[in-house]
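Justification of resources, computational component.

The compute hours requested in this renewal are based largely on the per-chain cost of generating structure records like the one below. Each record pairs the submitted sequence with a full structure-token output. That output is archived, and it is also reused by downstream analysis tasks.
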Amino acid sequence: MLCALTVRTLKPGKFEQFREAFMRFEDADNPPAGMVRFNMIRNAQNPDEVVCFGFFDGTVDELRRAVAEQDYDAQVKAITPFVESVGADGLYEVVEDYTAP
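The structure output for this chain reads:
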């Protein structure tokens, strides 16, 4: 299982515009094969810090192919006007997966 994760600091007060621009590229009714879950979260102390992450059941190559089929470059271009900086940004291997009973 992989997790694609990006931490962004948005320009002040731009969350709703960022969210709208980001989500118009996501097709919740037809996710890429292997996509398990996607989350967008905001820092409770700093609402301009947004973390987006998705879980993918497959290999790095399979995820890269799935992303290539989406228009990721267009999504990045659409959200760029609302982003001040990008922190962590990468693919991570899930090494522990705990679900509360």
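The mean pLDDT is 91. The radius of gyration is 14 Å.
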